[in-house]
Amino acid sequence: MLKTTPVPLTPRAAPHAEGVSNEEFRAAMSRLAAGVCLVTAHEPPLSADGPRGEDVGMTATAFMSVSLDPPLVLVSLREGSRMDDLLAEQPLWAVSLLADHQLQVAGRFSMKGRISDRLLFADLPCVRGEVSGAQVLSGALATLECRTENRVEAGDHTLVIGRVLTASLPAPDAQPLTYFRGRYRHLGQ
Fold this sequence. Notes:
By secondary structure, the protein is mainly β. The chain contains four helices and twelve strands. The strands form three sheets. A seven-stranded antiparallel sheet has the order 3-2-6-9-10-5-4. The radius of gyration is 20 Å and the shape is globular. The termini are far apart.
């Protein structure tokens, strides 16, 4: 008589109604290499005689070109994040596409739970965008200044579609910073 040993089932994370769990989805999507950018906006002062406005920034990997005519881009923001809240009221913002030497910038602006971005911008080589008033990084592969055209609720994120108002290439020959399998990487690694 053949003796069989039952094989314990590996506990599987609870799937959504569609059948995929958060962990399965996250693991699959981590295999998609993405460019890394810094999205910035300037929060205006609350009143003319109040404290000055503040610069806000966040690292994003969910950023893409949408249209050439008109020139449109899209960034995905976590719903309720500071940037999501700010861009709901401030239509002008900027994007700096990060070069591989700007790894620390990506890490700095991806920290959760920070109170103020003022210190994060303190020692960065930036210039203020002429149209958006937002900080743009010197030494980035490219910088764009945008005006929000549309906001789309998508699950736990907001897709912000922006019309590109200016584009420049501060360091067009630098290598890009990429994000793959949960880590920042240099091209070719």
